[in-house]
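[Discussion] Sanity-checking designs against the backbone

I'm trying to build intuition for which residues belong where. Below is a C-alpha cell string of 248 positions. I'd appreciate it if someone posts a full sequence so I can compare it with mine line by line.
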C-alpha cells in the first residue's frame, strides 16, 4: 500500500518543506536520478488532485510556520481562491508574497530563481525562520523555456487573469509531445534552483514534495479537456503520485 502524504507530513519533524507545484513522481524521479543529490526519494499518495483542495486537507489548523509563496492562492492578504473559504493567513505565521512582487507577466508565472534569491537572501541575513515552507510554481504551467507553450497572465485587483494553455492544446496548436517536453523542462529548472539552495540549508531536515501531479494526455478516451491539467477529486496516478524526498 502506498504511503499517505498527510501521514508523513506531521509524523516527520521537518525544518523546511519545499513544494513543487503540480510535480508528478515519475518526472521528478527521472530528474532526480539524472541530477542527484543526497537524500532518500519515495513515492507518496497525495490526498487531493488540486491545490485548493489539498491545502485545507493538509493544513486545517493554525501553525507556527513561515511560507515563501510564489502561489497567488497562498497569500497574506486574506484572499481565498477558486471560491474556497480556506485562506492562508489564518493558518500560518508569516507569508512572504513573492507572487505579488515577483510575477513575470511575460512568463505568466514566477520564475523559480526569484523564489531562490529571496530565500537565500533571508538565510544570509538571519531572517529565515525555524520552520518554513518554500512554495515554487513550477512545474505547474505555463512552462519556462524558449518555444514552449505559455499563458499570458497578470494580476488585476488581486485577481489573476490569464489565457489557459489547455485551450490552445485542445485546439491543436501544440502537440502532446511538446507539452510533455515543456513540463519536463520545468521540472528541471525548478530542481536546479532547489539544488542551488540546498547547501545553505545544510544541517536542516529538508523535504521536497508536491501538492499534486499533472495530466499530460495519458487518457485519450476522455473528453479532451480532462486529458490535461489537474482537476479536483481525481484519483489517477498521474495526479496523486508525488515525490517525497528527505534530506538531512
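Best answer:
Here's mine. Compare freely.
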Amino acid at each position: 500500500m502506498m504511503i499517505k502524504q498527510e501521514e508523513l507530513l506531521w509524523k516527520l519533524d521537518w525544518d523546511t518543506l519545499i513544494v513543487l507545484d503540480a510535480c508528478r513522481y515519475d518526472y521528478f524521479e527521472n530528474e532526480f536520478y539524472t541530477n542527484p543529490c543526497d537524500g532518500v526519494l519515495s513515492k507518496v499518495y497525495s490526498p487531493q488532485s488540486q491545490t485548493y483542495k489539498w491545502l485545507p486537507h493538509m493544513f486545517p489548523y493554525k501553525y507556527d510556520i513561515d511560507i515563501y509563496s510564489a502561489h497567488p492562492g497562498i497569500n497574506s492578504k486574506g484572499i481565498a481562491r477558486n471560491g474556497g473559504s480556506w485562506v492562508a493567513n489564518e493558518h500560518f505565521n508569516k507569508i512572504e508574497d513573492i507572487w505579488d512582487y515577483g510575477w513575470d507577466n511575460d512568463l505568466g508565472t514566477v520564475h523559480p530563481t526569484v523564489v531562490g534569491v529571496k530565500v537565500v537572501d533571508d538565510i544570509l541575513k538571519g531572517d529565515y525562520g525555524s520552520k518554513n515552507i518554500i512554495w515554487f510554481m513550477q512545474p505547474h504551467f505555463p512552462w519556462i523555456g524558449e518555444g514552449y507553450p505559455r499563458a499570458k497572465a497578470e494580476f488585476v485587483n488581486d485577481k489573476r487573469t490569464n489565457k489557459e494553455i489547455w485551450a490552445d492544446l485542445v485546439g491543436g496548436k501544440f502537440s502532446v509531445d511538446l507539452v510533455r517536453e515543456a513540463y519536463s523542462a520545468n521540472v528541471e529548472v525548478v530542481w536546479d534552483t532547489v539544488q542551488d539552495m540546498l547547501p545553505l540549508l545544510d544541517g536542516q531536515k529538508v523535504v521536497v514534495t508536491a501538492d499534486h501531479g499533472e495530466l499530460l494526455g495519458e487518457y485519450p478516451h476522455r473528453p479532451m479537456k480532462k486529458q490535461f491539467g489537474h482537476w479536483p477529486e481525481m484519483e489517477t496516478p498521474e495526479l496523486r503520485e508525488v515525490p517525497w524526498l528527505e534530506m538531512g
